[in-house]
């Protein structure tokens, strides 16, 4: 048990680094723009370059984990992430920083794609697995909370390069620990199927898809989002055709043909669209409507991730062990919708303690039980030889959902604000509260899917099941 716990700590530490990096960078963007001479539109590529590589490579990385051994792919991804962090920290030009961020995204994808699969193999028993997923969710929430606060402190005190350079010593320690404690499972070997043309099609297709989502409604794009979106759909369809004809497909169509995999990950997309969109919209609401600065915004956010962490560690596993992931997911989604509806009712001049704090606590309670349960359901029934692919698929759904939710809710907020006719803060308030209502709509759709379409999690033959998710 101590070795498994140490392995889980290594996996969660890498996930924490990834989440910390994304939130810290968001806080430091104004300083980066000023010091490296980014244009107002160009600075978005500090984020987009990372997203393009991360989302585009997740499926390929997951398959490589099955073929080469997940621990090898994890350590290779961690190595690249650390080296790219050093490049970012030493960058003296906008081009170098964007290149470093792209490599960071690639390293993060290779490490993150195999994490869920490794966790479910380390902890196959349902109660242990629920506990492990709760700890994993806790690190995600903790990273989101720390990122806003630590990002503001480090950037103000030591400058923006430190937010990247701090990854180097931490990453080296995690790599050394991982080499010692991670289970060295043997993969199937490259001969079992690495479809290079298919890998190129899906990587470029997903990258273009994320680009189209992040640039929707943005002025000054070199290529319209509709064009890149159409190209992304074309490439993804070509990938599916390729998988049906390839001798050794990257992802067998029998896997994509599983209704459970598609239905459960549709819920994943909606949950993460809501979570990422909520984080983005609420940050803008607190800053632009309530007048908080960057550090104050981070502190205002703290109740949500703190509650998420406490629920993930001490409540979610017990609930899932007793009732199963599906009932817990349904209850979590209903609570999540309630929290968003409360946020949509916040007045133009709110009191933080009276108007904001209660819904933020409700959101923390909801997310704390929703994310572990939906991840367990998405991984349900994956055989040992498929966990990398299924993990990569689920991570791709998470990233696509996050990018989609952020872009759509931002567009909704901007459109509603401009159409409201209210002056100043009133217009912003109208936009953001409408975005909260739309996010609640995402949750309602996810709730319907969970109730109607996720009734019986699949089970494999005895001795082969990785996730024993009970209804």
UniProtKB/TrEMBL annotation:
Coarse class of the protein's main subcellular location: membrane
Localization terms from the record: Cell membrane
Keyword Flavoprotein: no
Membrane protein topology class: Multi-pass membrane protein
Transmembrane regions: 42-61, 73-99, 105-123, 135-154, 160-178, 190-214, 220-241, 262-286, 298-316, 328-348, 360-380, 400-419, 431-454
Keywords: Cell membrane, Membrane, Transmembrane, Transmembrane helix, Transport
Organism the protein comes from: Paractinoplanes deccanensis
Top-level division of the source organism's lineage: Bacteria
Protein name stated in the entry: MFS transporter
């Amino acid at each position: 048990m101590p070795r498994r716990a140490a392995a889980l700590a290594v996996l969660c530490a890498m996930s924490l680094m990834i989440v910390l990096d994304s939130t810290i960078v968001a806080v430091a963007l104004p300083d980066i723009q000023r010091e490296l001479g980014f244009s107002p539109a160009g600075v978005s590529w500090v984020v987009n370059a990372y997203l393009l590589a991360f989302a585009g490579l997740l499926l390929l990385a997951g398959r490589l984990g099955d073929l080469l051994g997940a621990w090898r792919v994890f350590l290779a991804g961690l190595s690249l992430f650390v080296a790219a962090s050093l490049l970012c920290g030493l960058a003296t030009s906008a081009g170098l920083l964007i290149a470093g961020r792209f490599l960071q995204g690639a390293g993060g994808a290779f490490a993150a794609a195999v994490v869920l699969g490794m966790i479910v193999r380390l902890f196959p028993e349902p109660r242990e697995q629920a506990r492990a997923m709760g700890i994993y969710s806790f690190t995600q929430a903790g990273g989101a909370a720390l990122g806003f606060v630590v990002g503001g402190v480090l950037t103000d005190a030591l400058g923006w390069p430190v937010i990247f350079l701090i990854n180097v010593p931490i990453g080296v320690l995690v790599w050394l620990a991982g080499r010692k404690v991670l289970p060295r499972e043997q993969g199937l070997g490259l001969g079992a199927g690495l479809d290079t043309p298919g890998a190129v099609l899906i990587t470029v297709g997903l990258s273009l898809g994320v680009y189209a989502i992040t640039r929707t409604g943005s002025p000054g794009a070199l290529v319209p989002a509709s064009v890149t979106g159409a190209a992304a759909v074309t490439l993804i369809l070509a990938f599916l055709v390729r998988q049906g004809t390839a001798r050794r497909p990257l992802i067998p169509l029998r896997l994509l043909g599983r209704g459970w995999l598609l239905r459960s990950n549709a819920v994943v997309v909606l949950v993460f669209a809501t979570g990422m969109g909520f984080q983005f919209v609420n940050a803008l609401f607190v800053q632009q409507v309530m007048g908080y600065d960057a550090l104050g915004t981070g502190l205002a956010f703290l109740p949500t991730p703190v509650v998420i962490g406490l629920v993930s560690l001490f409540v979610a596993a017990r609930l899932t062990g007793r009732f199963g992931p599906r009932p817990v997911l349904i209850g979590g989604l209903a609570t999540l919708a309630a929290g968003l509806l409360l946020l949509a009712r916040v007045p133009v001049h709110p009191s933080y303690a009276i108007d904001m704090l209660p819904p933020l606590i409700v959101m923390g309670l909801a997310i704390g039980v929703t994310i572990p349960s939906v991840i367990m359901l998405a991984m349900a029934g994956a055989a040992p030889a498929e966990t990398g692919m299924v993990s990569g698929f689920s991570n791709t759904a998470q990233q696509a959902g996050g990018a989609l939710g952020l872009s759509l809710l931002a567009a909704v907020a901007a459109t509603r604000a401009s159409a409201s006719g209210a002056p100043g803060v009133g217009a912003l308030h109208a936009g953001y509260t409408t975005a909260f209502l739309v996010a609640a709509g995402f949750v309602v759709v996810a709730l319907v899917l969970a109730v109607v379409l996720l009734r019986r999690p699949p089970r494999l033959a005895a001795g082969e099941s990785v996730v024993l998710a009970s209804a």
